[in-house]
Amino acid sequence: MPTATDAQSEPYEIGVGDTVSVHVWRNPELSQTIVVRPDGNISMPLTGDVIAEGKRPEELASEIRVALSELVRSPEVTVMVVNPASKEYRNRVRITGQVEAPQSVAFQPGMTVLDLVLLAGGLTDFAADGRATLNRQVDGEYKTFGLDLGELISEGNMDFNHVLQPGDVISVPRKQIFRGEL
């Protein structure tokens, strides 16, 4: 199981729905506050559409500076994220399946598997607690890690009480009941 990283230390990437303020020094007519469109672009005077999604603010500023340099002498561009709306969805943790109340909640540093299970009201009687999984994005792709929630909740085995990261999803499958079992 990978260890948790401090999500606050990672550089912010602009996302759809974020509001960015683009300031072009000594060119107030080119400065504006813009919402990133669903296609990931912003529209700027003189440059047209510029892809903003997935870029750090300084990367976007550099790209706008290069585009404007063909029309404006030595443009100085600053980009600030003034409303990080996309972060609300990226920085969530989720629990699905056989819990009393499946949840998607805002990530809080230090949040653990047990915290999320308790927020979801605990497991249902039909939960296959030994087959639960934690799905986490690692190096751009989702990895699945086994969780024994029965050991964690009933036995207090903290080996399964992992610290969560933004984007984590806990899945609790249903028990398989075979005919003839009572």
TrEMBL record:
Q: Which GO terms describe its molecular function?
A: polysaccharide transmembrane transporter activity
Which top-rank group of organisms is this from? Bacteria
Task: Give yes or no: UniProt keyword Hydrolase.
Answer: no
Keywords in alphabetical order: Signal
Q: Where is the Polysaccharide export protein N-terminal domain?
A: 7-81
Alphabetical list of InterPro entries matching this protein = PEP-CTERM_polysacc_export, Poly_export, Poly_export_N, Soluble_ligand-bd
The segment(s) forming the Soluble ligand binding domain are 92-140
NCBIfam families, per the entry: pepcterm_export (TIGR03027)
Kindly give the PANTHER family that the UniProt entry links to this protein. Answer: POLYSACCHARIDE EXPORT PROTEIN GFCE-RELATED
Q: What is this protein called?
A: Polysaccharide export protein
Starting at the broadest rank, the lineage of the source organism is: Bacteria, Pseudomonadati, Pseudomonadota, Gammaproteobacteria, Pseudomonadales
